[in-house]
Design goal:
The chain is α/β, with parallel strands linked by helices. It has a single domain, classed as Rossmann fold, CATH 3.40.50. It has seven helices and seven strands. It has a five-stranded parallel sheet, sandwiched between helices. The chain has a two-stranded antiparallel ribbon with strand order 1-7. Helix 3 links the parallel strand 3 and strand 4. The chain is globular and about 55 Å long. Bound molecules: 1,3-dihydroxyacetonephosphate. 1,3-dihydroxyacetonephosphate binds next to helix 3 and helix 4. Its EC number is 4.2.3.3.
Length: about 160
């Protein structure tokens, strides 16, 4: 079994204004809208982005300025995953639906893997999202440990 791991960690500093991704599967969109309405004032202090349909509904129903990427089944989860790999995302709020298989399940799994890999705070339901948004770290700079990509590359070059 290949058990290669990054040999070292590095520090990444999150700024006080966070870049927050908001995503909800169809069966969870109402819950996401209700949750975001409760946190509207807090969310509006940060930079928001989301998959296409989720972002569109947050804009049209709550007036939140959410940058819309591609819809999830068309590659939106992968775009958010790319932001994580580029250290361009700070918090992931993803209400994924535990009752509905998705045509893009591999993309969902890939996104959650990258979030785990890069130590990105993730909430997968309203209660965990409440905890994340009420954290004192949300509005402060925060140092976190991430894999050292250079050490990984050096360890693998021959
Ligand atoms: O499918 C999604 C996440 O996996 C969400 O996509 P939409 O926001 O476009 O519905």
């Amino acid at each position: 079994m290949n058990d290669a791991r990054p040999p070292r960690q590095a520090i990444r500093t999150l700024q006080a204004r966070k870049r927050i991704a908001l995503i909800a599967h169809d069966g969870k969109k109402t819950e996401m809208l209700e949750w975001a309405a409760r946190w509207q004032e807090t969310l509006s202090r940060h930079e928001l982005l989301g998959t296409g349909t989720t972002a569109g509904r947050l804009r049209s129903e709550l007036g939140l300025p959410v940058e819309g990427l591609m819809s999830g089944p068309l590659g939106g989860d992968q775009q958010i995953g790319a932001r994580i790999a580029e250290q361009a995302l700070d918090v992931l709020i993803f209400f994924w639906d535990p009752f509905a298989p998705q045509p893009h399940d591999p993309d969902v799994k890939a996104l959650l893997r990258l979030a785990a890999l890069w130590n990105v705070p993730v909430a997968c339901n309203a209660a965990s999202a409440d905890f994340l948004l009420s954290s004192p770290y949300l509005d402060e700079r925060y140092d976190m440990s991430i894999p050292d990509a250079n050490a990984w590359a050096d360890a693998r070059s021959v």
